[in-house]
Each structure stands twice: as structure tokens, then as C-alpha cells.
């Protein structure tokens, strides 16, 4: 298998760029999560996996070979070379969070559309700089929260919006934890304060916050209070934490995020008439379908020996893995911008900013001795 190096890239690729209208992706860095997105880009029908960049050509080449990149893919020995490639439409950035501000802005300034791993930034001030760069350069922004693009998510939304079956949302409870191995706790970037200073809050906590805001139709809470007893790594990075969120109308939510307890991905949303449960909200148990359970107007049998009605399970099939559906949707937005002159879709940065605001408030509450923080 051969790959095109940066020394002969432009002439070798120009002919292929004319063969179709697929959106052309480059991956900035050889991060582990990038392997999943490389596959997703290949599976999506409207995208092409075209390039990867690392700090050395050899590392990029080995990464491409190991992860099944097309033989026509280009490999670069610097990030700047990928950004200078005129054929690349989209840059996926899976760099550590501390590097997002620098490289996300550079991507936007090169007029490349930006698919950025979460958390988007270390704080909302950095977030705003990134999004402003995207707005100023007319490029699409989206963060890499894959479960939002699973068709199950739309079906669950229909239940939550059903006033007869679910009623009004009153509380949400979200958990995302996994037990990190010793090597992770020693060497992973998520325990390095100079790389991913937000630790478990920024990683698994980002998903929990997203699920809560999603259930609340992205209405921001009024206040956030961190739960006492977070666990810190020797480096000072958060390994486990939680928080409670409160809305002015009385809604409440809680989440637990941890690198120290068994793999769990639960969301429960409770309404005045119904309940939604799911146990694999970030990554479904299997790629081809995903399920959720609902109960509506629940009660007991006459002798309190069982439930009436019994909760029902709903299985939603999918034609593509959720990460490939994310790439497909992002590519569709990019195509509309590039070919029809449409403006970038603004809902994605708006949703991401709300998550960042809540994340910042949780961090502030921890830093301030678990005081309640207004948003």
C-alpha cells in the first residue's frame, strides 16, 4: 500500500478531486479517536478520506496504513502542510483540548470547515474565539458528539415532546463512567494538566451535560452546584465528579462523570406523565440498532403486584454507525455552503456553547468550594 507524501501532493491529487463532489476530509494528528472518524469518513456516502498530518511523515504514514486509509491518501509531516492543501474541504481536529484554540483558529483562517473533538475548549472565552474565527471565515463548525446523530435520538425526542405521553420534563439524571486502566491513569492525555486539564469533567462529563441540555431542549439552567467529593489525579486533574443543575421553573438534573467506575452510560428523563430510560447513550451496545425504554402514566396492579402498563422497549435500526451519520450530516452542510453559497448552520455552535457554559460553571463550583454558581 502506498501513500502520497507531502513532496508530490498537489499534482498527484488534482485529478482525483475532479472525479466527484464528495467532501474531502483531512485529519489533523494521529490521535486514537481519529481511527474511529477515519472509518466513519470512509463509510459516509458523501465524504472522502484524503489526508492525515502528524509531526513526522513516518508517523502519519504508519497511522494511515494501520487504519486502512485509501492508497491515494496524502500524508504530511506537519499540520501546516495539511492546512495549506487547497483540495481539503474539512479538517477534523482530535488534538488535546489545550491545543484546540490555536489549531481550530488556524483551520478556520485557512477557510477549512471544522469538525472539532470535544470538549471544544478549556473555557467559554476560548470557545468564543474559535467560533468567531469560523463565523468570520464562513466555515461550518460542529463538535464531535456522535450520539446526537443516531436516529434513536430523534425518536426519543419525539417521546419527550409528546405532552400526552411524557408531559412536562421535571428531572434528568445522566451517568457516564468507565474504569481506566493503570496505563491510562499514568500516560493518557486526559490526566495531563498541560494537555487536557479538564480531565473527566471535560471528557465523559461533556457527554452528560449534553444529554441533560438535550432533554431540556437546550434551555440553560439557572444555577449549577458541584457535588462534594470529587476525586483528583496526583497531577490535579479531575478523575471523578458530579453536579446538580437547577432551572427557574423547578426542573432539576444531576450527572456523574468518572474514570474510576465500571462502564456505564445511563440517562433517565422524568416527566409529569412519562419516563425515558436508556443505558448506552454515548455508544450503543451495537452499531446496527439502538434501543430505549419508555413508560407512560405508570401505576400498579390492584394488589400492587406489578406495573400497569409495563414499560415498553423501542428498537431503532440505523443504516450507518452514528459517527458515520455525523460525518454525513456535516458533509451535507459543507456541500450546501460550498456549492450553493448557503450560510453555515448556527445551531451546532449554539448548542456547543451552552455545554461549555455549564461545564465552566461546574468547574467554577468545584474551585469555589462547591458554592452554587449562576449561569
UniProtKB/TrEMBL annotation:
Note the Pfam families from the entry. Answer: GFO_IDH_MocA, GFO_IDH_MocA_C3
**Residue ranges occupied by any GFO/IDH/MocA-like oxidoreductase domain in the UniProt entry:** 155-276
Any GO MF annotation of the entry = nucleotide binding
Sequence ranges assigned to domain Gfo/Idh/MocA-like oxidoreductase N-terminal in this UniProt record: 24-142
Gene3D superfamilies listed in its UniProt record: Dihydrodipicolinate Reductase, domain 2, NAD(P)-binding Rossmann-like Domain
Matches recorded under InterPro entries: Gfo/Idh/MocA-like_OxRdtase_N (IPR000683), GFO_IDH_MocA-like_dom (IPR055170), NAD(P)-bd_dom_sf (IPR036291)
**Similarity-based family:** Belongs to the Gfo/Idh/MocA family.
Give the protein name, as stated in the record: Gfo/Idh/MocA-like oxidoreductase N-terminal domain-containing protein
Q: Which organism is it from?
A: Papaver atlanticum
